[in-house]
Design brief:
By secondary structure, this protein is mainly alpha-helical. It has 8 helices and 2 strands. Strands 1-2 form a two-stranded antiparallel ribbon.
Length: 343
């Protein structure tokens, strides 16, 4: 179409009219044909790129409309998408944990109130419960012994300090009162000897108090913590057992059977936990009883021998008792800070 227009324009005569205007009807027709060519020409978005030489095969033509610009936002949005997915995963995990905790707390609270008002069944191990009651009662009595032994230590320490001050006063007056020098001297020596023996006895009592404190507040307390975990596991076990029994007693359909299977799994998990902790409590109570007898046998013998030797005035027997039980006394003034620490 373009060639015909150009040939038509080449063979056309261009007359000049009287006013010098060179536009003719043929020229107007040619201009309209050119405008039509420009309008109906190929679209830039639909042009093709020839991969081969000029006039090559059609397979080498690649439509430019199929070439898309690279996604410039992909590299920037990818890290943000990963961070958003990670945050969403953490939030979902926290929500699931809160949901499980809420369900477990509800079941255990319901079971606890049912037992308290006599409507729920409680799993009881008679033999183990009796051992737990004995342990709790024993701990209370040993706490009383510990409290009284500490009070005795404080009172006796004050008495020893008083004896030491009294001995120093007698010794000072012995130097300043020639007419009573011998009498003040005898009393000063007696008070110093009592003070020395009192410090030895304090070492034995402190060792006794330390051993009782370890037995009560560490060994027994550790066993009682395991017992507390066992009691919580027993409550959870009974709660899920009751829940399973209620589901099994009701009507069954496809959805109910699925819930029963899930409840059966939870029941088995809490049953295993309960039985494991019950075994742990039994073992710990057994070992605690053996350890208690061993420790108290040694400490009671130490306490008796030390007190008897002190009030009998037998200094050698008192010192021998401490060596027998490997009780080491702190040298006088060891609790005071050194001159370097005071600076």
């Amino acid at each position: 179409m373009t060639d015909s227009i150009l040939s038509k324009a080449a063979t056309m005569e261009i007359p000049i009219n009287s006013n010098g205007d060179t536009r003719t009807a043929e020229e107007d027709s040619l201009e309209q044909d050119l405008q039509q060519v420009m309008v109906s020409g190929p679209n830039l978005n639909e042009t093709s790129i020839v991969s081969g030489g000029y006039g090559g095969a059609a397979e080498g033509i690649i439509p430019t409309s199929s070439i898309k610009a690279p996604n410039m936002h992909h590299s920037n949005s990818n890290p943000s998408m990963i961070s958003e997915e990670a945050t969403r995963g953490v939030a979902v995990e926290k929500f699931d944990n809160v949901k499980k905790w809420s369900i477990n707390t509800y079941k255990c609270t319901k079971q606890m109130f049912s037992e308290r008002f006599g409507r729920g069944m409680k799993t009881v191990d008679q033999e183990l419960e009796a051992q737990i009651d004995v342990l709790k009662e024993t701990k209370l009595k040993y706490e009383c012994i510990l409290r009284l032994a500490r009070a005795l230590t404080n009172h006796f320490y004050n008495m020893v300090q008083t004896q030491q001050a009294l001995g120093d006063t007698f010794a000072d007056l012995s130097q300043k009162s020639p007419e009573l020098q011998d009498e003040f001297g005898y009393n000063a020596e007696t008070q110093k000897l009592l003070c020395k023996n009192g410090e030895t006895l304090l070492g034995a009592i402190n060792f006794f108090v330390s051993s009782i404190n370890t037995l009560v507040n560490k060994t027994m307390e550790d066993t009682l913590m395991t017992i507390k975990m066992y009691e919580n596991a027993r409550l959870e076990y009974d709660a899920y057992r009751t829940d399973l029994e209620e589901m099994s007693a009701g009507p069954r359909d496809a959805a109910t059977i699925m819930r029963i299977e899930a409840a059966q799994q939870q029941y088995q998990i809490h049953k295993d936990k309960y039985e494991r902790l019950r075994s742990d409590v039994s073992i710990k109570i057994k070992f605690l009883e053996e350890n208690k007898v061993k420790v108290m046998h040694k400490q009671l013998l130490l306490f008796h021998n030390a007190i008897s030797a002190y009030f009998a005035g037998n200094q050698q027997q008192l010192e021998q008792t401490l060596r027998q039980f490997n009780v080491k006394l702190k040298p006088p003034g060891s609790d005071k800070p050194s001159w370097l620490e005071e600076q």
